[in-house]
């Protein structure tokens, strides 16, 4: 899919950088035809500095070899049902597909399954505007060249990229204890500051008071367009002294400090970087490439892409691009040039008439599944002065917008001949939005992406090494990359990514508010709710401990025919496959519904369960996430594990009232949990009650009818 653009072949003085042995490493994954001898990524980069004449002769051949065949990389497009006879291990293979998708391309809801549309073969080819968006051939206007004095030095961006970490600081990261400090801000609430680089001084990091837009070092034209663009969120009349909402003000202060941020309550970088490059282009031209300290011109990474925005659906990507256009255009009568805009709107937009008018779903569902919900996409965006180029080749892009699945098909896996992840080598700002949705898609794609961030590239891609920042050459980019991670909930897997992969030198900030009441207060039906605690020796043994506890302690109570109409809610797909195989082996009277089931199979399963022809119904959380069908006929409810989304607990409990035939007195609800489910338990029952349940010696906790 990648088309490597032609780049300026200007002669540059090679730079030699002495690296320690511990840092002179390359990616653990290499192409199958590479030499047996291991060569460091940095040495491979230096080896690409050939004679100009030789490069010119081989330019066409390199461009042809760099194109990735889309059809060979599309290994994860399809999806299919898994037979009951398959072992649990097969489910792990299914994780390489988009297992969160229903098989019916156009179901009752009017939504096609994400990830079914194929990318255009011309996705990364637009040679017509190549020279217009090339940074090497663009210069800043002469009258603006000298505007870098004290104001520029005070810019947080300049302080961020110009700060040089010492090698001893990098080496000490692995052994330094993490220092943490908690603060409470008026809007964000409980914040946890942490870092392994320096002793934190949280007293200097206080909630913002009044902010004047002129003091924020915004790059033109943002300083003039932000107020209008953001006016829809402001309660009062917009002005430069009140440019943000109270929440935006606190979030911006953290983001502008270039700290990593985890914001689990989700309900200007490129312009500055490109301006710095064009300013130095002008300085080099005026000094005829031979005057001044070479380090003054180090303003780039090893590859051009600086920002990666990960979003779950095409609709979200469309909104991001529309926001870019709005911020760059503002009130100006002169419209900015947007290349390939019509094509982008056609491929990322949606037809409102495709959605059934009588479709009724909860508000959170309506907010997530709006517009085009295809989840296999990727596109490059190049921004220069008053022009935006969509579908720019990745190595000519400033911003990459993609889904985890779209990136996974390009990054590939170990042993695949045609794969590419060099474009991730110099990402300075990583935005992972709506991270909770990736738990419902395929979290392995997120982990695969994070494992390939900020690795030394395997090819030079025409880089001018005299312009590359030293911390990029030293393979320290991950300590300068700011990560903004947002989602709708606290989850152990999301927390793990933030702790493991976010290591910015300025530290990390995480919002850690705890729910006081829990979603149990939203349960409307009158039924006893029994929470049964199971014991596990460690986190690794929880999966087996839960299965054994269920088949030995819980299931025997429901085998009797009297306990019919029992729905078993299973959050994990792997647990679902394991239970399905066990029920098949024991010849239990059951049916099942998962996200991979065809529409006809879902209808049959719902009918058999409602009529009592099947005693048990296994239901996956992903199916509930993508469809939100009301399952009728439930009399007994078992949560095999606490739901990922806490409000799913109340939604499923309230399904019991869908069919009332006078058996309300016999309704039951059982929930399994362990001490490792503290976050999910607190979200359901409230933090105080969860603490009591986890500290209590009792393993069974009964919530009486109607208790909140």
TrEMBL record:
Pfam families: Utp25_C (PF06862), UTP25_NTPase-like (PF22916). InterPro entries: P-loop_NTPase (IPR027417), UTP25 (IPR010678), UTP25_C (IPR053939), UTP25_NTPase-like (IPR053940). It comes from the Eukaryota. Residues 20-29 have a biased composition (Low complexity). GO terms for cellular component: small-subunit processome. GO terms for biological process: maturation of SSU-rRNA from tricistronic rRNA transcript (SSU-rRNA, 5.8S rRNA, LSU-rRNA). GO terms for molecular function: rRNA binding; U3 snoRNA binding. Residues 54-88 have a biased composition (Acidic residues). Residues 1-127 are annotated as: Disordered. The keyword Nucleus applies. Residues 520-703 form the UTP25 C-terminal domain. Residues 257-509 form the UTP25 NTP hydrolase-like domain. Keywords: Developmental protein, Nucleus, Phosphoprotein. It is found in: Nucleus, Nucleolus. Signal peptide: none annotated. Interacts with CAPN3; the interaction is required for CAPN3 translocation to the nucleolus. Belongs to the UTP25 family. Component of the ribosomal small subunit processome for the biogenesis of ribosomes, functions in pre-ribosomal RNA (pre-rRNA) processing. Essential for embryonic development in part through the regulation of p53 pathway. Controls the expansion growth of digestive organs and liver. Also involved in the sympathetic neuronal development. Mediates, with CAPN3, the proteasome-independent degradation of p53/TP53. This is U3 small nucleolar RNA-associated protein 25 homolog. It comes from Tursiops truncatus (Atlantic bottle-nosed dolphin).
């Amino acid at each position: 899919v990648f088309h490597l653009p032609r780049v300026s072949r200007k002669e540059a003085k090679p730079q030699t950088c002495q690296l320690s042995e511990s840092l002179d490493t390359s990616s653990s994954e290499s192409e199958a035809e590479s030499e047996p001898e291991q060569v460091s990524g940095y040495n491979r980069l230096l080896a690409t500095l050939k004679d100009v004449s030789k490069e010119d002769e081989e330019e066409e051949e390199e461009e042809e070899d760099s194109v990735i065949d889309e059809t060979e990389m599309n290994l994860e497009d399809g999806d299919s049902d898994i037979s009951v006879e398959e072992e649990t291990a097969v489910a792990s293979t299914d994780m390489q597909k988009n297992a969160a998708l229903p098989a019916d391309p156009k179901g009752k809801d009017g939504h096609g399954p994400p990830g079914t549309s194929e990318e255009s073969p011309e996705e990364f080819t637009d040679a017509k505007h190549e020279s217009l968006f090339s940074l090497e051939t663009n210069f800043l206007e002469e009258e603006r060249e000298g505007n870098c004095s004290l104001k520029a030095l005070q810019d947080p961006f300049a302080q961020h990229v110009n700060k040089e970490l010492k090698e001893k600081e990098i080496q000490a990261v692995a052994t330094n204890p993490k220092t943490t400090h908690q603060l409470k801000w008026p809007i964000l609430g409980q914040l946890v500051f942490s870092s392994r680089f320096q002793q934190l001084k949280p007293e200097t990091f206080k909630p913002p008071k009044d902010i004047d837009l002129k003091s924020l070092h915004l790059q033109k034209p943002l300083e003039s367009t932000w107020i209008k663009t953001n006016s829809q969120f402001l309660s009062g009349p917009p002005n430069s002294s009140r440019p943000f909402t109270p929440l935006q003000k606190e979030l911006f202060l953290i983001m502008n400090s270039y700290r990593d941020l985890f914001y689990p309550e989700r309900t200007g970088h490129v312009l500055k970087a490109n301006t710095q490059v064009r300013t130095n282009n002008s300085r080099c031209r005026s000094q005829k490439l031979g005057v001044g300290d070479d380090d003054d011109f180090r303003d780039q990474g090893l590859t051009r892409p600086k920002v990666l925005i990960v979003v779950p659906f095409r609709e979200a990507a469309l909104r991001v691009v529309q926001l870019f256009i709005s911020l760059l255009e503002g009130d100006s009568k002169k419209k900015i040039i947007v290349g390939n805009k019509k094509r982008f709107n056609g491929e990322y937009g949606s037809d409102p008439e495709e959605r059934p008018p009588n479709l009724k779903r909860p508000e959170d569902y309506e907010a997530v599944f709006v517009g085009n919900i295809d989840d296999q996409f990727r596109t490059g965006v190049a921004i220069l002065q008053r022009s935006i180029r969509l579908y720019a080749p990745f190595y000519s892009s400033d911003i990459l917008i993609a889904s985890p699945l779209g990136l996974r098909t390009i990054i590939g896996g170990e042993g695949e001949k045609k794969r590419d992840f060099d474009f991730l080598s110099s990402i300075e700002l990583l935005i992972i939005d709506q991270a909770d949705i990736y738990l419902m898609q395929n979290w392995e794609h997120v982990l695969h992406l994070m494992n390939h961030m900020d690795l030394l590239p395997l090819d030079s891609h025409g880089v001018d090494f005299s312009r590359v920042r030293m911390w990029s050459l030293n393979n320290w980019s991950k300590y300068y990359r700011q990560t903004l991670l947002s989602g709708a909930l606290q989850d152990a897997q999301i927390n793990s990514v933030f702790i493991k992969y976010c290591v910015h030198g300025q530290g990390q900030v995480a919002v850690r508010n705890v729910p006081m009441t829990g979603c149990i207060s939203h349960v409307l039906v009158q039924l006893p709710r029994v929470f049964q605690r199971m014991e596990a020796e460690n986190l690794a043994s929880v999966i087996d401990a839960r299965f054994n506890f269920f088949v030995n302690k819980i299931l025997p109570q429901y085998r009797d025919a009297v306990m019919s109409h029992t729905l078993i809610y299973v959050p994990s797909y792997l647990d679902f496959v394991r239970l399905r195989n066990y029920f098949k082996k024991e010849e239990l009277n059951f049916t099942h519904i998962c996200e991979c089931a065809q529409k006809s199979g879902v209808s049959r399963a719902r009918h058999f369960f409602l009529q009592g022809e099947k005693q048990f119904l296994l239901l996956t959380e992903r199916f509930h996430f993508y469809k939100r069908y009301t399952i009728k006929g439930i009399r007994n409810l078992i949560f095999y594990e606490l739901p990922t989304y806490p409000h799913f607990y109340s939604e499923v409990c309230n399904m019991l009232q869908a069919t009332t035939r006078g058996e309300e007195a016999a309704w039951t609800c059982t929930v399994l949990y362990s001490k490792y489910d503290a976050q999910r338990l607190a979200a359901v029952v409230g933090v105080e009650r969860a603490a009591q349940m986890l500290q209590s010696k009792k393993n069974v906790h009964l919530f009486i009818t109607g208790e909140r």
